């Protein structure tokens, strides 16, 4: 047998005298199979590979970097609300009929002022109407000593059949001997069919008046007129003392009461509504509008 212990160099030799190659094995590396290539020379399998197939790779987290202008997440479909058609707020307006009788023009002026203040509440649609005259020109001339001004052409005469279409009412009339004028009373007397049908039941109402003097029936006129509303089942909305200083001052003669606004016309009708009386009326209109909207909701 040949020397396998080594030559002069001390190199280990095989049986044929050829030097043996020393294989350095890293700890944990499997030994080469007999007669095969050392295990270190065999390339390791790719990650996830196994004998007989390929393992699915785990999903990799991707970092999203917003753009310079900022990324915007898509809005949820449920949060998209269709826009209302142009000019339509989608809110039903409260329809109020302001119905009045005016002999010398004082009640007409209060009615127009009431309409402006009432519509300032918002979502309120106010319409002015007047009741028919029941007295002849001769009778009016004898009653007031002069012919009253012509009725306003821009305000139509109301018909009782129109009343059910309103949501709320405002009635204005002068006081004659401590009660509403006969023209307005005749108008109410013509509503018998509506009373039988309950057509006005539950609808809110407000009232105002005028008188020749400070003690000429401001309160009694409005107080006695509430009976007309009660028989129809309407809801009377008084003003109380919501106008505050406009009601409490005693420096000047003025109209007004907790039942509703009023003005002093004077014996010849020459006095016009004062700013204090108009302010109390505006407060009443806004107060009534707010209450009527709540009742109609």
TrEMBL record:
- Report the GO molecular function annotations: FMN binding; NAD(P)H dehydrogenase (quinone) activity
Task: State the SUPFAM superfamilies in the record.
Answer: Flavoproteins (SSF52218)
Provide the Gene Ontology terms for cellular component: membrane
Enumerate the catalysed reactions: a quinone + NADH + H(+) = a quinol + NAD(+); a quinone + NADPH + H(+) = a quinol + NADP(+)
Family annotation (Pfam families): FMN_red (PF03358)
PROSITE patterns with a match to the protein in the record: FLAVODOXIN_LIKE (PS50902)
Where does the record place the Flavodoxin-like domain?
Answer: 96-288
Q: Where is the composition biased (Low complexity)?
A: 26-40, 47-70
EC number(s) reported in the record: 1.6.5.2
Where in this protein does the record put region Disordered?
1-70
Entry similarity comment: Belongs to the WrbA family.
- What is the name listed in the Swiss-Prot or TrEMBL entry for this protein? NAD(P)H dehydrogenase (quinone)
């Amino acid at each position: 047998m040949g020397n396998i212990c080594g030559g002069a160099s001390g190199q280990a030799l095989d049986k044929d005298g050829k030097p043996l190659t020393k294989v350095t094995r890293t700890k944990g590396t499997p030994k080469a199979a007999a007669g095969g290539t050392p295990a270190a020379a065999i390339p390791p399998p790719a990650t996830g590979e196994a004998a007989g197939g390929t393992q699915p790779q785990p999903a990799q987290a991707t970092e999203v970097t917003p753009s310079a202008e900022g990324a915007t997440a898509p809005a949820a479909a449920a949060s998209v609300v269709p826009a209302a058609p142009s000019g339509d707020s989608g809110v039903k307006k409260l329809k109020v009929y302001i119905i009045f009788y005016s002999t010398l023009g004082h009640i007409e002026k209060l009615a127009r002022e009431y309409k402006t203040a009432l519509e300032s509440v918002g979502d309120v649609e106010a319409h002015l109407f007047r009741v028919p005259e029941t007295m002849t020109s001769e009778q009016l001339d004898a009653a007031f000593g002069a012919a009253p001004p012509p009725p306003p052409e821009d305000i139509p005469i109301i018909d009782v059949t129109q009343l059910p279409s309103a949501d709320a009412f405002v009635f204005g009339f002068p006081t004659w001997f401590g009660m509403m004028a006969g023209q307005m009373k005749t108008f109410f007397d013509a509503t018998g069919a509506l009373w039988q049908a309950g057509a006005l039941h539950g609808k809110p109402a407000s009232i105002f008046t005028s008188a020749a003097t400070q003690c000429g029936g401001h309160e009694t006129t409005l107080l006695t007129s509430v009976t007309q509303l009660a028989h129809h089942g309407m809801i009377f909305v008084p003003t109380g003392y919501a106008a505050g200083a406009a009601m409490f001052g005693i420096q000047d003669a003025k109209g007004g009461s907790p039942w509703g606004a009023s003005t002093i016309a004077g014996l010849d009708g020459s006095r016009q509504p004062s700013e204090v009386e108009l302010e109390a009326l505006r407060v009443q209109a806004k107060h009534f509008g707010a209450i009527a909207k709540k009742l109609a909701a």
